[in-house]
Design a protein that fits this description.
Elements: E1 2-6, E2 16-21, E3 27-33, E4 36-42, H1 50-66, E5 71-75, H2 87-101, E6 121-125, H3 129-153, H4 161-171, E7 178-182, H5 184-189, H6 193-199, E8 207-214, E9 223-227, E10 229-233, H7 242-245, H8 253-267, E11 273-283, E12 295-297, E13 303-305, H9 313-324, E14 331-336, H10 340-346, E15 351-354, H11 358-371, E16 375-377, E17 395-396, H12 407-416, E18 424-428, H13 450-459
Parallel strand pairs: 1-6, 2-4, 2-5, 5-6, 9-11, 9-14, 10-11, 13-17, 14-18, 15-16
Antiparallel strand pairs: 3-4, 7-8, 8-11, 12-13, 15-18
Helix pairs in contact: 1-2, 2-3, 3-8, 6-9, 8-13, 9-12, 11-13
């Protein structure tokens, strides 16, 4: 998709003209008026907000795709915009969401003769220099969101830990990001017993992917992003049911988000020191799998009692959070499709955020709202800590009481045992792993929460 900025007023020469109207019933249709075709978008009668604006932009593109329109023209003066959005923000928001709505995962489909139906050109009238600058940023962010969606949507057989590491390394070329990939021998030397324990059941070798971007002041403490990279999660010996296993090639979406957020920051030339840590494994059942009741020794030295092999994500993150201490970070944020409990608590419209730092939660929620990646807090009170203390080890990877309630909190409390000594927040993005119909995005990965992470890297 190309954005073309114009000043003439003859929009009808450039494509189907977008007209946004306020009517009671939100709808979209093609209307002909003489020689001019209009894409008539009704957005209801509610006051326009940043959230509604995001959906409006996506709806323009998805409606154009539905009607096989290749070129659209619109005047910014016709797009309702909240007063608190600057032209720069509007340009970024418009470009990233248009690109996201124009994306569809077709890597394994035969291309039809008429093509995939993408919108090829968007002619924009009335854009000032700030809108154009914002749009340039939005193109970078939107493209990286879509690249992460390709990684996440790729089937597990075609996206093993080694293939994920290779794809991320290729994506980092030319960005100034230093990529280091640790194999199982290196992880053994570092005593990453939790990562290696989860990986035991698979024939595919675990990888520990490290991204280092050093464009901040020399000696400045970095921001560290940690992403869960389970390339396929069967649940291990605690095997998932059929309905729960189908989308588990997406269980590395946190890792994909971390990688492409850092790549976006590099392309935007963010002047920060940034580190990405992505432990990548398959969680498979076999004769060599780790078992319920096993005790793993983590990199931190703490022992972990395995009560459920399907609580594997928090295990691999434990070693990654310990490794993060090496960098003496000023902030660590981990991102993971961690628990179904987060989905049960929040539905599919926001990711859960947990931290003992209330000010950090407040900052992240604000940046989430601005970016369109919504975050909502769950408690991480000290009272929950007893529930993750092991009977026969230091900690347990599931509630020792056996309760099926509150697992999103238990998972975060477990992680907090390995995130001591630095400012830390945990984002359970399981609710936003896949797009829902009201997102006006293609099926599959929603690309969350890259837009938030880029904002965080720019502004923290």
């Amino acid at each position: 998709m190309h954005f073309i900025f114009k000043t003439e007023e003859k929009m009808s020469q450039d494509g189907v003209v977008v007209r946004v109207v306020f009517e009671k019933k939100p709808d979209a249709e093609i209307v002909k008026d003489g020689k001019t075709k209009f894409l008539h978008i009704s957005i209801g009668t509610k006051p326009i907000t940043r959230r509604l604006l995001i959906i409006l932009v996506r709806k323009i593109i998805t409606t154009a795709r539905k009607h096989k329109i290749k070129k659209i023209a619109l005047a910014l003066s016709d797009i309702p915009t909240p007063k608190d959005i600057s032209p720069y923000e509007l340009g970024s928001l418009f470009a990233e969401n248009a690109l996201m709505a124009n994306f569809e995962f077709n890597s394994f489909k035969t291309r039809p003769k008429e093509g995939w139906g993408e919108v090829e050109e968007v002619f924009i009238y009335g854009a000032d220099s700030q809108f154009k600058k914002g749009a340039a940023r939005g193109v970078v962010v939107g493209e990286e969101v879509n690249k992460s969606r390709i990684l996440s949507n790729t089937p597990g057989g075609d996206m093993t830990p080694k293939l994920l590491a290779r794809k991320i390394k290729e994506a980092c070329r030319g960005t100034g990001i230093i990529v280091k990939i640790l194999g199982e021998n290196e992880m053994k030397r570092l005593k990453m017993g939790a990562v290696l324990g989860v990986a035991r059941g698979s024939e595919e070798e675990a990888q520990f992917i490290i991204l280092e971007y050093k464009k901040g002041k020399k000696g400045e403490a970095p921001i560290v992003l940690v992403g869960k990279g389970v390339t396929f999660d069967t649940g291990g010996l605690n095997l998932k049911p059929t309905g729960g296993i189908l989308d588990m090639h997406l269980d590395m979406s946190g890792g994909a988000a971390v990688a492409h957020a850092i790549i976006a920051a590099a392309k935007l030339k963010v002047k920060k020191n940034i580190v990405g840590l992505i432990p990548a494994v398959e969680n498979m059942p076999s004769g060599s799998s780790y078992r319920p009741g096993d005790i793993l020794k983590s990199m931190s030295g703490k022992t972990i009692e395995v009560l459920n092999t399907d609580a594997e994500g928090r295990l691999i993150l434990a070693d990654a959070l310990t490794h993060a201490k090496k960098y003496k970070p000023r902030l660590v944020v981990d991102v993971a499709t961690l628990t179904g409990a987060a989905v049960a608590a929040l539905g599919q419209r926001a990711s859960a955020i947990l931290s003992k730092d209330e000010k950090l939660i407040e900052t992240c929620m604000k940046l989430g709202e601005e970016s369109g990646e919504y975050l909502w807090p769950l408690p991480l009170w000290d009272e929950y800590e007893d529930e993750v203390k092991g009977n026969f080890a230091d900690v347990a990877n599931s509630a020792v009481s056996g309760t099926r309630y509150g697992d999103a909190i238990h998972a975060a409390m477990f992680l907090s045992q390995f995130a001591e000594g630095y400012k830390w927040a945990h984002i359970d993005m399981a609710p936003r792993m896949v797009a829902i119909s009201s997102d006006h995005l293609a099926k599959g990965s929603a690309g969350a929460p890259i837009r938030f992470l880029v904002k965080l890297l720019e502004n923290f």
